[in-house]
Amino acid sequence: MKKQKTMTNLLCCLACLILYVQLFLSPNIAFASATSSEAEALLKWKATFQNETKNNLTSWAYYPNVNTNPCNVWTGVSCNTAASVNRVNLTNSGIQGTLYEFPFLSLPNLEYVDLSLNQLFGAIPSQISSLSKLIYLDLSHNQLSGKIPPEIGLLNSLQVLHLNENQLNGSIPQEISQLQFLNELCLQKNNLTGPIPPDFGKLKDLTMMYLFKNQLSGSIPSEIGNLKSLVNLGIYKNNLSGSIPTSLGNLTNLTLLYAYENKLSGVIPKEIGNLKSLVDLQLSENHLNGSIPSSLGDLSNLEILFLRDNQLSGPIPQEMENLKKLAVLQLKNNNFSGYLPQNICGGGYLENFTAQNNHLIGSIPKSLKTCKSLVRLRLEGNQLTGNISDDFGAYPNLRFIDLSHNNLHGEISHLWGQCPQLETLRIAGNKLTGSIPPEISHATQIHELDLSSNSLVGVIPKNFGRLTSLVNLMLNGNQLWGPIPSEFGSLTDIEYLDLSTNNFKESIPGIFGDFLKLHYLNLSNNKFSQEIPFQLGKLVHLSQLDLSHNSLEGKIPSEMSSMQSLEKLNLSYNNLTGLIPTNFDEMHGLYRIDISYNQLQGPIPNNKAFQNARMDGNNGLCGNVGGLKPCNHSVEHKHTSKKEFLIIFPILGTLLLAFLAFVLIGRRSRRKQEQEIKRSNMHESFFSISNFDGRKMYGEIMEATNGFDVVHCIGKGGQGSVYTAKLPSGSIVAVKKFHQTLDGEEASRKEFLNEIRALTQIRHRNIVKFLGFCSSAQHSFLVYEYLETGSLAAILSNENEAKKLDWSTRVRIVKGVSHALCYMHHDCSPPIVHRDITSSNILLHCDYEPCVSDFGTAKLLNPDSSNWTALAGTYGYVAPGKILK
Ligand SMILES: *[C@@H]1O[C@H](CO)[C@@H](O)[C@H](O)[C@H]1NC(C)=O
Ligand SMILES: *[C@@H]1O[C@H](CO)[C@@H](O)[C@H](O)[C@H]1NC(C)=O
Ligand SMILES: *[C@@H]1O[C@H](CO)[C@@H](O)[C@H](O)[C@H]1NC(C)=O
Ligand SMILES: *[C@@H]1O[C@H](CO)[C@@H](O)[C@H](O)[C@H]1NC(C)=O
């Protein structure tokens, strides 16, 4: 701040000095009065700016008693030898204002005006035409509106006209075609309507014509073919219709032609083949029909060709092989038929070739199978045939390949393992046979592997565990067999897993419970047996689970109710027995359930989804739902889950808790997803202790804190103090101890219960992990993971620490917190509002990953109630909406 001020002062002095030197020593002094009136006029304009102090024009000033000369002293102003202003370059100067007071009449010698990248608004005044010497006019990247004044056509020396990226509307004045020396015309990204004036054909010197991203209509005037100098023609993203004029074939200097996303129809004129300079031709997303003219093979400089999303038909001409520089060829979503060109990769530059969703037949040409330059290849949705067992794969640069939904046969080549960059491999819906080659696991960057709907046999190779980047894995609809290999457990990034309709057998491995990011799991139509692993309860992001048509037995594990994201659950056609866990009551997201054809008994859970569930084929179910017999009360559930205990807890409150009661919540053991194994190990080990022996845990915490000795205290708040406790296992936890015990003051008791209730609902990498709680006659406390770096508030208030927080880290913190809030507001049911997001409630890991903490004032938003009006939180941080309520 201080430094900046001194700097400005220094600059001011410097400016004064130069000014005086100019005024008293330079010969310009003779013309000072003319210059002075120009300066005055400019100052008058400056005075109309809305942000007089915030722009970069502090050097524009008037000095009484001396003739003010702006030449080379004022920012952005230059003069001719006669000391009259001829250039005004104020690009990116923070100007907020209009052009209404711009001294058009007072600056007769102006040749160059650049006011781009400011916040100019209002219309362009027609007086602009008085700048009769103007050569260069750039008003781009402002907020100018209104029509382009036709008087601009009177600026007959103009060579460059940039009005792009404003909010100009109306049609393009045809008077622009009088600017016979015009070289660059940029009107893109406005709101211009109407046609392209045919008279533009007169602009013989034009090299650049950018009209894209407007709402221009009508057809492309054939007169454009007269613009012999044209190099770049950009007219994409308009509403242009009609056909492409054949005269465009005369634009022999054209290197770039972008006409995509219009409504052009008719055929591609064969004359386009005359554009020998063309490097980049993009005609996609129109209504073009007919076939590709073979003359396109003459475009020997062409590197990029986009024809996708039209109605083109016929074969892809063999002449395309002559395009030796071609790097990108996009033909997808047309009606092409016939064979792929045999030597399409002949030039050795082809990187991106997409021809999916056409009617192509024949086999994949050898040149494509061995095309080392390929990065992306999409041929899905054609009728390609042939054996792809051999010489396919081994692409050093390939990232994405999709050959799905063709009629390809043969085995999966082991060469796919030689694609070090490969991220997506899809060969679904073909006639592949044989087994999955173990070599595929050498392509360790694979994120998505889709081999579904083929006739593959054999087991999943053990070294599949090396594919640790896998996010989507689809092997469904084959004849794979055997147990799931335990090595599968290392695929912890997986989000979508479909192994349905195969012959997999033995138990569903408990390691599936470690796939914490999973949102889709389908194991249906296999031969899985034994019990459903209770570990699946850890899959808190899972939204669809299908285990139907297997031979699963035993009870439905009550841990499954922890899958709070679950929406669809299909357990039909198994041999499941026993009662449906009552804690299914709390699975608020569930809306489709199928438990038909099992041997389940007892009452159905009190959950809306069960009202419409498919439950036929179970003899012992009862409840108030059509088709079921009413329940006989002696069959009521006996077991009370931990979760239920928590819910009735507030009601029984003080009575129940007179004695030592150490209740721990088993569901809290969510491992931080992308974090070091070390932290997660510690977390898990701590957890297993607390999960099974609360009394021991209590003892350990009392011992570790020396009975809550102040030396272990790391923070104090209104309701309680926070201590660190190093447990015998070596893990460190944070313990928030309330000042009052539960049977004490009502407010803190409420807060305690509130916090527990909120915390049991949520798991997120940016929300502090809750490990357990204790309520005894002496103490009430909550146990959390300990975040070594402390709170954001503490860091920001320490100058040295704050310096370590660079901007990208700060952005990351903001992002993390917003992820946490988004999760609480949108992914939790009912939504949770924290109501006290302050920097002191944002804790940081050592890598500055943020965690939202302190849920003492959080509220569950019951959608049926409107009782959330009470103000809570830290003054100054409360959401504004709440104050209004
Ligand atoms: C652009 O013009 C159209 C009609 O001419 C109008 O509906 C639309 O609101 C305008 N958009 C902007 C951003 O001015
Ligand atoms: C192309 O230019 C030639 C003259 O250079 C002219 O005769 C011909 O008509 C033009 N072609 C089209 C299609 O306009
Ligand atoms: C696409 O081509 C097939 C023949 O290959 C033809 O029957 C069909 O009508 C064409 N569809 C369109 C939209 O042109
Ligand atoms: C559950 O799976 C069975 C067999 O896989 C299927 O027939 C049924 O339609 C599925 N139920 C629902 C509700 O999708």
Automatic annotation (TrEMBL):
Membrane association type: Single-pass membrane protein; Single-pass type I membrane protein
Name one matching Pfam family. LRR_1
The places in or outside the cell where this protein is found are: Cell membrane; Membrane
Q: Where are the transmembrane segments?
A: 645-665
At the top level of its lineage, which domain of life is listed?
Eukaryota
What SMART domains does the record tag this protein with? LRR_SD22 (SM00365), LRR_TYP (SM00369)
Give residue ranges for domain Protein kinase: 708-885
* InterPro entries cross-referenced by the UniProt entry: Kinase-like_dom_sf, Leu-rich_rpt, Leu-rich_rpt_typical-subtyp, LRR_dom_sf, LRR_N_plant-typ, LRR_R13L4/SHOC2-like, Prot_kinase_dom, Tyr_kinase_AS
Q: Which UniProt keywords apply?
A: Glycoprotein, Leucine-rich repeat, Membrane, Receptor, Repeat, Signal, Transmembrane, Transmembrane helix
Q: Which PANTHER family match?
A: LEUCINE-RICH REPEAT RECEPTOR-LIKE PROTEIN KINASE FAMILY PROTEIN-RELATED, PLANT INTRACELLULAR RAS-GROUP-RELATED LRR PROTEIN 3
UniProt protein name: Probable LRR receptor-like serine/threonine-protein kinase At4g08850
**Annotated organism of origin:** Prunus mume
> What gene is this protein translated from?
LOC103325641
